[in-house]
Amino acid sequence: METRVCRLYGPHDIRIERQPVAEPRAGEVLVRIGAGGICGSDLHYYHDGGFGPIRVREPIILGHEVAGTIEAVGEGVGDLIAGDRVALNPSRPCNECRYCREGLRQHCLSMRFYGSALRFPHEQGGFRDLIVADAFQCEKIEREASLAEAAAAEPLAVCLHALSRAGDIRGKRILVTGAGPIGTLTTAACAHAGASEIVVTDLQDAALTVARAVGATNTVNMATEPHALDPYFEAKGTFDLAFECSAAAPALKSAIQAVRPQGTVVQLGVAGDLPIPLNMLVGKEINLVGSHRFDTEFVEAVRLIGGRAIDVRPIISGSYPLEEAEDAFERAGDRSRAVKIQLTFSGS
C-alpha cells in the first residue's frame, strides 16, 4: 500500500511523491486524509526554508491542520472504528517530562508536532492521502461539519488557548490586530464567548470582510485609515483586552495604546524580536501575556466546529487538490485574496 505525500525539499521546491504506508499497530489507526489547511509555518518553510532559527535541514512532509476518515484500526484503540470521521491533533507530547507532569503539555520538552522542522530528524506532517496516527490524536467529528471545517480545529484550538490566557471574555471590549486565520478565528471565539465589542484591524480589506463575517463589530484597514484607532487611545485606552495576531511592531504598540489601564494584551503572532513601548506598558500597568499552541483546547475546538457553534466556513478561501499544491501555496501567501487555503486529498 502506498500514499502520495507533499514533501518540501527547499524554498519553492515542493514535490508530490509516493511512499509505502504500514498497517496500523496496537494503539494506532490508519486515516485517509480529506482536507488539510496551509498554516503560516508551512508558508515560511515554503518561501524561506524556515523561520527564525528553525530551518529545513532535510526533506519534510508539511501540514498539521488535517482531518480525514479512519480506514483501519489496530488493537486497543477504544471506541474508534473504520468509517469514523476525525480531526487529527498534531501534538504528541511525551507525558513524562516536568512540564507534562505539571499539566503544561504544550511546553513538552520532547514534543513531536506534525510537519515541524524544530527537531532533527524532522517530524513529518499530514499532507498525504494516508497516514498512520496514534489513536489518542483522533477526535471524532460530530454532526454536520465537513472534513474541511474539521481541519480548522488546530488553529481554532490555538485561539481558544489564547482566550484561556486572557480570562473571562463575556461583556468585554476586545481589539484584535491582524485578520489572518488566527485573528479571524480569535474573533469568532470572542464572539462565541460573549464579547460586547470586537474591533479588528488589518491591512487587507479581504481579510477584514471575513472578520466581519465571523463576529467583528467593527473593522479598520490601517493601510487606508491609519488614524482610525486614535479615538480608542483617548483617556488612557478603551479596550479591556487585545489579541495581537500579526507580530508587527506597530500593531503591538497600538494594542498597548488602545487597552485601558490594567488591561491585558495577549500576544499570539510570532516573529523576531520586537520593540515594546515599555514606558506605556509600565505606566498603564498592562498585562502582556504570551500564548503558545494549545492542549485540551483541541477537543473543545472539534466540538465547537462539529456543532457549528463556531462556524469556520467563512475563513476557508479556497481548496486545491494535492497535485496543485504549488498553486495552493502561492495563493495562500496572497493575503489580498486568501485567509485560509486548504489542500484536498483522496479522502475528501
- Domain module count: 2
User: What do the pLDDT scores average to?
Assistant: 96
Percent in helix: 25-40%
Our count of helices gives: 11
CATH topology of the largest domain: Quinone Oxidoreductase, Chain A, domain 1
Structure, explained:
With 348 residues, the chain is an alpha/beta fold. The protein folds into two domains: 2-152 and 312-344, Quinone Oxidoreductase, Chain A, domain 1, CATH 3.90.180; 158-290, NAD(P)-binding Rossmann-like Domain (Rossmann fold, 3-Layer(aba) Sandwich). 26% of the residues lie in helices and 30% in strands. It has helices at 40-48, 98-101, 147-150, 153-166, 181-192, 205-213, 230-233, 249-258, 278-283, 297-306, 325-332, and strands spanning 2-10, 13-20, 28-37, 50-51, 54-55, 60-61, 65-73, 85-88, 91-92, 112-113, 130-134, 138-140, 173-177, 197-202, 218-221, 239-244, 259-267, 287-290, 316-321, 340-344. Strands 3, 7, 8, 11, 12, 19 and 20 form a seven-stranded mixed beta sheet that branches. The chain has a six-stranded parallel beta sheet with strand order 15-14-13-16-17-18, sandwiched between helices. Strands 2-1-6 form a three-stranded antiparallel beta sheet, with helices on one face. The model has no long low-confidence stretch (mean pLDDT 96).
